[in-house]
Amino acid sequence: MEIIIWAVLGLLAALAAFGVIFTGIIGIQFSRNLKEGLLPYFFYPALFSSGLMVLLSSRTFSVDGGTNEALVNSSAAAAVWAIRLNSIFTLIAVADQVVRYFATRPKIDAPRALLFLAFCLFWVTNVPIAAYFASHQVAPELQWVYGPALIFGLLCLSREGAHETIKSSRNAIILYCAAGLVLIFIMPDKVLDRQYAQGYVPGLPRFSGLAPHAITLGLTASIALWCLITEPLKTKWINRSAWAICLLTLFLAQSKTVWMAFLVGAPILKYYQNGLPKLTARGIGRLNVLYFIVPAGMIGVSCIVAAYFLFGNGADRLQDFLQTKQGAQILTGTGRDLIWEIALREWHASPIFGYGLNLFDFDYRTQIHMSNATSGHNQFIDALGRTGIVGCIGFSIYLFSLLFFGFRYASQSSGLTLVVSLLILVRSITEVAISPAGIGITETASYVLIAALAACFTKAQVVNTRKFRTVSMPNQIFNKTA
After folding, report:
1. Is 323 a domain residue?
2. Residue 223's closest CA among 189, 188, 261, 268?
């Protein structure tokens, strides 16, 4: 009987391997009919599998408060296979993209190489080193290699492929948000947290949609809005509908940090697209708003605030506010100070390599009696507690690289690289913004940023003809007049 069982298992394993190989061959052949390959359309299966996992899970805000255990322990066959097929699709698309890149270029460009090396340092210090040298070791997992493979594939995108990737991310997120809004009328307990009491609007439920968390949903909605600014949809009424869907999603998600990042990023995008407005006056000429109105406004606001604190008992009122529930939430990061204290305690216990990758897993959360503490809620503190000083240094170098290239190529991308890199920085203060292992919706911001940078890394090409000699700038893909 044992021989028969092992024979059946071996046959099933062989069939599975054959199916994967056959699927890969079919995928590669199909990608030949696509000008830019399969990778630009990665966001469609990624968001679909993520949404299907939530839809088929047992998450119910009215019963369990929407805990993550309901998502992690989801055993729906359709959701499991959707995630597996998404992983296979990603690996096939990456392989196709890498072959396309090196078939047209003898070597990888320096900016692409530097950014990928920074990510590899981030990955090595936060995954394998932490897994094998931390105080609590874990077994290796296959999904650890998905992150580096996808990042390298995105860096190998051509200018047109990166452009198509940004548009597909925009469209996929809009559909993702719209599906979640529809579920408000069909399955409200799965997408709405009616017990949420930390928002600025009393009694307004918090909307999580088909995302694992409301903050993740708000993050993806803000990215779609920024993509709509740089790449609006061609049909006017569809474009306005997309704006309405994403703005409503962003508002109902009630994430203060994402709101702040969006309100800061939208003017930056408009500036890089249209420049600053001009004022015209007789005898004076044209005055730039940047050199007159903005400094004057800042001085005026500063004077008003100073006068309020000096003569209007502003200090006493501020002290009274900080003693209220809302003020305490601001000072403690909505209760995050307790999680920070726990993460730092684990770092002090193992300062070099940290506690391990299983920090804040289900068993650890049960031990500390904090079911919602799924991370350190600050990536620097989380990296210290989880992977120690080594992991925190690796993360800091990669984050600095994203910010550097985001600022460096802000004008070429119409500000998109700048605002997305700033969004990652802001989110790192209160959440875990980027992960080196695995692929999913939580990494949408970094994937869009890498795609935008890949377009900007493409060098200018000199075109010679009989009548004229021009220089085409492939990195100006976001500029309508390029």
Report:
1. no
2. 261
25 falls within a domain: no
Contact status, residue 140 vs residue 190, Cβ threshold 8 Å: no
Distance from C-alpha of 249 to C-alpha of 254, rounded to nearest angstrom:
9
Question: How many Cα atoms within 13 Å fall on the side-chain side of residue 61?
Answer: 22
Please report, to the nearest 10 degrees, the dihedral formed by the alpha carbons of residues 397, 365, 50, 425 taken in order: -30
Residue 44 lies in a domain: yes
Domain range spanning residue 393?
Answer: 37-277+352-472
What DSSP element (H or E) covers 481?
none
Whole-number Cα distances in Å, 413 to 121, 163, 171, 406: 26, 10, 19, 9
Q: Which two tokens stand for residue 18?
A: 């054959």
Which parts of 405-475 are beta strand (E)?
A: 461-464, 469-472
- Residue pLDDT tens, the chain, 482 long: 777 777 666 666 666 555 555 555 555 555 556 678 889 999 999 999 888 888 888 788 776 555 555 565 555 778 888 888 888 889 889 988 988 888 887 778 889 999 999 999 999 999 999 888 988 888 888 888 888 999 999 999 988 999 999 999 999 999 999 999 999 999 888 888 888 777 777 778 888 888 888 888 999 999 999 999 888 898 899 999 999 999 999 999 888 878 888 888 888 888 887 765 554 544 444 444 444 555 555 555 555 655 554 545 554 554 554 445 444 444 444 557 788 888 889 899 989 998 988 888 878 888 887 777 777 888 899 899 899 999 999 999 999 999 999 999 988 888 899 999 988 988 888 888 888 877 888 888 999 999 999 998 876 433 333 333 333 444 445 554 33
Which helix (DSSP H) or strand (DSSP E) does residue 73 occupy? none
- Number of domains, the chain: 1
Residue 68 lies in a domain: yes
| pTM listed for this prediction | 0.79
Strands 206-207 and 278-281: unpaired
